[in-house]
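Q: Convert this sequence to structure tokens.
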Amino acid sequence: MALINNTYYNELPSLETAYTRRQAKHIDNLIQGPLRDVFIKHGAQKAFALYLQHRHHRLGSNEAIVKVHGTAHLMSDGDIVDIEAMGNKIIPTTWMGRDMLAAMEFAIAPTSYAPHPFSPPPPKVAPVSPLSSGVARNADWCRSFALENRADIPVIPPHFMAELEHVLTVSDCKGLFGIDTLAEDDWTELTVGNASVVVPSNGKEREKAYIPVAFAFDERKPGFRVHGKCGKDHKHTSKPSGSGDL
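A:
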């Protein structure tokens, strides 16, 4: 059973396509206005950032994007099972989607991992079918984030998610923005070999070489801060032959 449905992931736009749409004149006002308001209202700025939806890969079946110490890798379901067997867990980090926001990218965390203190207790609902370590791997879990009542995976409050999706829909920006987990430092993502490497950023990158993709908010300050950037030449291909990024 795959971690995600690769068809949904492959529907995400390329970075170039997403950036073109993001440059519409009204988008900055939307980010620093209605979208910021939703984050602040729900306190979500303490744990999450607004994210420009895009992909750098085309996933094959039973593949997922999983980060290890900031470097993103294409992993098969078998790879993930092996890593979990070593005492690690797979946690969602990025939520995207054309029609609805769902967990699309992940990271490996040690068993001692605990969520950001912002995260409220998971909802009391019936568990769904798990895979391997007990983290549910189906679309229902991707949509509701914590159906097994686990306290050790990031939890996005349903009311925050619903209001954010509503603002995106009425603003004709559905499929443009998603949610990313807030990192300790502002970051830049670049290509090293065939790996997607994330490094801390001091904001001194060559301006025209990188695209802002993550936007953080502070209830004490108006507007937004660019939290993450991707290189314009940041492209990868998937493991299956002939399935390169479009």
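The chain has six helices and twelve strands.
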